[in-house]
Amino acid sequence: MFFDYHYLFHLFPQIIKAFPITFFIVSISTIIGLILGLFLAVIRLEKIPILNQLAIVYTSFIQGTPVIVQLFVVYYGVPYIFSKIGVDTSEISKLTFMYIAYGLNTTAYTGEVIRASIANVPRDQFDAAYALGMTKYQTYRRYIIPQATAEILPNIELSVISLLQNSSLATYLGIYDIMGKAQLVGANTTHQIEANIDAAVIFIILSILIHLSFKTLFEQKSEVTVNDELVSESTAVFTLSSKNMIKKGELKYE
After folding, report:
1. What's the CA gap between 65 and 25, in Å, rounded?
2. Which parts of the chain are coiled coil (predicted)?
3. N or C: more exposed end of the chain, with fewer CB within 10 A?
4. What is the CATH number of domain 5-219?
5. Is 111 left (phi over 0), alpha (psi -120 to 50) or beta?
């Protein structure tokens, strides 16, 4: 069929109905990636024996293989493995496997982003935190990660946008997200070009919204960072004097 711009408006409402599927794939996978990625980064930074080597192999596998391969491995491989130990996975939805596959993919990239950002935090920041009596967990949670966030956010934004684009691969496993819905209605109406243009417009709009969201977060973080820098000198003096007070038992971190 020849291009008919009327179908751009006619097909758009049908395609946009699949937005929740794409939204949940991106949102849940990003949350999984951030949580597991943080643990992965800490394992790499602390060089925990065995776990560090496993993390390197895992990251290399994810970064060295196409996303579609990872989807097939999870979708077909996980049920096969569980079937060998007597666990029935037939009741698990396709979307659940998509969350797992995309979440594991995002974990590898997010972990490297967080690791590199934390590694750029000056070592004396760790020493200052330890001097105040902080544990390693408190140091990361209250002191190091907040400082690294400004560097992490732009890279996480790219990861989320990449995940949004790769979510269209779920179509190959029968998931009717935005791209899958576009393919379906395009085939039914024989207006594939118009349907794909509609899908492209939706992806562009979503990418812009993601960018604006992260830009707002980054600007807010930058304002906090500037305010922190204004008191950095007094904090340094306090830290130096605190070391002697801690040794004397006059100051404890609560």
Report:
1. 20
2. none
3. C
4. 1.10.3720.10
5. alpha
Q: How far is CA 104 from CA 55, 115, 157, 174, 214, in A?
A: 12, 16, 17, 20, 22
User: Are the C-beta atoms of 41 and 52 separated by less than 8 Å?
Assistant: no
Largest CA distance in the chain: 85
Tens place of pLDDT per residue across the chain (254 aa): 577 888 889 999 999 999 999 999 999 999 999 999 999 999 999 899 999 999 999 999 999 999 999 999 999 998 999 888 888 888 888 899 999 999 999 999 999 999 999 888 888 888 888 888 888 888 888 888 888 887 888 899 999 999 999 999 999 888 999 999 999 999 898 889 999 999 999 999 999 999 999 988 877 766 555 445 434 433 443 344 344 444 444 444 34
**Contact between 95 and 175 (Cβ < 8 Å):** yes
- DSSP letters of 96-138? HHHHHHHHHHHHHHHHHHHHHHHHTS-HHHHHHHHHTT--HHH
Count of residues in the chain: 254
Q: Do 159 and 110 form a contact (C-beta atoms < 8 A)? A: yes
